[in-house]
Amino acid sequence: MTEQEILQIFKDSGALLDGHFVLTSGNHSPHYIEKFRVLERPRYTEMLCRELANKFANDNVTLVVGPMTGGILLAYEVGKDLDTKAIFTERVEGKMKFRRGFEVKPNDRVLIVEDIISTGGSVQEVIDEVRRFKAEIVGVGCLVDRSGGRVDFGIPLKPLVKMDVVSFKPDEVPEWLAKIPVTKPGSTNK
Predict the structure, then answer these.
(1) Nearest to 184 by CA among 7, 12, 32, 15
(2) For 94-120, what is each residue's pLDDT tens digit?
(3) Helix, strand or coil, per DSSP, at residue 43
């Protein structure tokens, strides 16, 4: 699939929103990608995850990891396409951790998958958690990198779509955006 075809899926799903949004990072943006408008459609999710899996098909992935919540669906679907295990991290006392008896072994070749990357904070927490187990991380795959390529994990990042979406620190919100009522979609309870 081309990047335009993938973007069309987001448009057709009603996932691309305009307004005034507070992102997980705490930053404000006039644009938001409501990934669950896409993920609630199993066929779209399957198609997009197959594209992610294809980007890492030659990396001998033995384990796919995604952060809760959207990352669970992605990890499962990508793991299915790569014929390997899929597990997830969840927040424990404010940090991404493995629970539920999930195991990461030192000889694992781990692919981390995420839905939307803005600042990369959640993915960095997953990277740090995987590294505690001395496993090799082959890369990060995501549906959308909305950082404009500014996020660098020191390992390959392969998004399906790259976007450069403006965002502002809370104390730097421009007047034109401050006039629009704030919406805080989703929550990671950081």
Answers:
(1) 32
(2) 999 999 999 999 999 999 999 999 889
(3) helix
CATH number for the domain that contains residue 168 = 3.40.50.2020
Supply the pLDDT for residue 58.
Answer: 98
Domain count, the chain: 1
What is d(CA 49, CA 32) in angstroms, rounded to the nearest whole number?
Answer: 21
Cis peptide before 69 (omega within 30 of 0): yes
Helices (H), strands (E): how many in the chain? 6, 8
State pTM to two decimals.
0.89
> Is the separation of the CB atoms in 168 and 174 below 8 Å?
yes
Beta-bridge mates of residue 183: 21
Residue 150 forms part of a structural domain: yes
> How far apart (Å, rounded) are the C-alpha atoms in residues 145 and 139?
14
SS3 label, residue 138: strand
Q: What is the pLDDT of residue 187?
A: 54
